[in-house]
Request: fold
Amino acid sequence: MSGHSSYEFKNPVARWLDSRLPILSVARAQALDFPTPKNLNYWWTFGGILAVMLVIQIVTGIVLVMHFTPEASMAFDSTEHIMRDVNYGWLLRYMHSNGASMFFLAVYIHIFRGIYYGSHKAPREVLWMLGVIILLVMMATAFMGYVLPWGQMSFWAAKVITNLFSAIPFFGETIVTWLWGGFSVGNPTLQRFFSLHYLLPFVLAALVFLHIWALHVPGNNNPTGVEVKSGQDTVPFHPYYTMKDLFAIVAFLFVYALLVFFLPNLLGEAINYVPANPLQTPTHIVPEWYFLPYYAILRSIPNKLLGVIAMFSSILLLFVLPWLDTSKVRSGTYRPIFKQFFWLLVIDAIILGIVGANPPEGSWIIVGRITTFWYFFTFLIIFPLLGLLETPRPLPSSISDAVLSKKKTPESAAAPAE
Amino acid sequence: MSTTVTAEGNRRDFLYIATGAVGAVGAVLSVWPFVHQMNPDASVLALASVDVDLDKIAEGQSVTIKWRGNPVFVRHRTPKEIADAKAASLDDLKDPVARNANLADNAPATDENRVVGGKEQYLIQLGVCTHLGCVPLGEQGPYHGWFCPCHGSVYDTAGRIRQGPAPENLHIPKYKYIADTRIRIG
Reply:
């Protein structure tokens, strides 16, 4: 499906360039003419949305750095300086901080879409695993960015999260001191986090390039999970999906704008407007919303080392999902039982998030333990067994077939997506 | 010493392997400065000690000192607190060792080993929860010792872990009495 198009450029300059560096013909083949399944629904637009969010974060980040001072005694004040003095500084900072939230919202939808439609299955395992690496790098980037304003929550988030490494037997304390550059979180920690927070988005951009490359080898999965069989099944990416993606991007930016302009601190913590104080921990420390489910898993396990292991495993499990989900049928649309467990998993993740936002007391501990158990049980027991036990519904013979039969029988048309 | 000559191994192969090995070792060694620069620097290490006057701390009062970026709790304990700490059975403790940098690593976590003999009203310890590093709150929790608001670890009046996820007793830094009521931490 991939490969160079045989297009000959009419413009002599374009032809001259392309014969020396085929950048134009590759762009044409991969970004414009790329054959794409004609049945992709709106859940597929989150890839494009994510690319836009990465660009927004990099652009707003670069200009914020022009006004920010990454030094412990000045970081908080320079953040306030951005908010109060810099022209449109408030807008740029709110775009950047809420942009991180929107980025994670989109990435979680993108991941759940992949799980539902079996986009991780052969031949797209490497594509999927690159995606998991992107998630991990995103998380590291977001965490270090959250530390930079040097408020109370920034400081204590840094302390608690870096202290996770102290659970490592024997070398734990040495590793943590090395990460901090001191005996506590301090200026050396802030400066290295700043350096890495600037670097990692470009690493992300490189990983996204690999992710798209790995996507363009087998081509897109689609809501039926049936491979493309003929040219009948595809349409060129441009204009069909450039325009569909653009529409979804604009809709997504509406929600983003709502946060930035009307509720800029909705997802933040008020206590982070108090400068960092190494001698006092806020009474209720919570991570940003996008880390809450992992935080709930960490706290559900009463042993420090095992809690840390469980938390990291909850993400590392995704690496082996292509082999845990044993079903030969890709799309959840044709898997009546899988579909139910999939939505249970979504609900489970949301409950874990709610547990993570609440203090570890009373019934929250029990709810946290049940949902943590269910998360791992779904991936390690249910997904492998379902592939062997479940009887899938008959698959359409091709994408075109599925699209055309949908028109004839309206009752089956409601099945996919939602 | 056998001198078997094989078709594969000759002088040139040896030179290739030796050159490659030296290059690999050099590459690995050159990584060290880039790793070690992240360790505490000289200015951080220079802030190694701090003196505290204990006579200014009334009975039942605590002060928090900043030492190497971390809070150090200095508490003048009440007789009841000392009695409660002494009454605890070693079998009830989650962490059986004292975590006192002034004693051997395996010293048992008795109340005596958490303080200095004759000065047992003064409890000096790092105010850093051994779970994930938050600062516990004083005179709180079921043992009226310390309570960590982050993940609910409970310490008794000798700073020993009694409940919750923290694995160790609050650490006791190296300190010594340089006068009757004056200590030097670090």
Observations:
- The mean pLDDT of chain B is 89.
- Chain B has three helices and ten strands.
- Chain B touches chain A through 27 residues (CB under 8 Å).
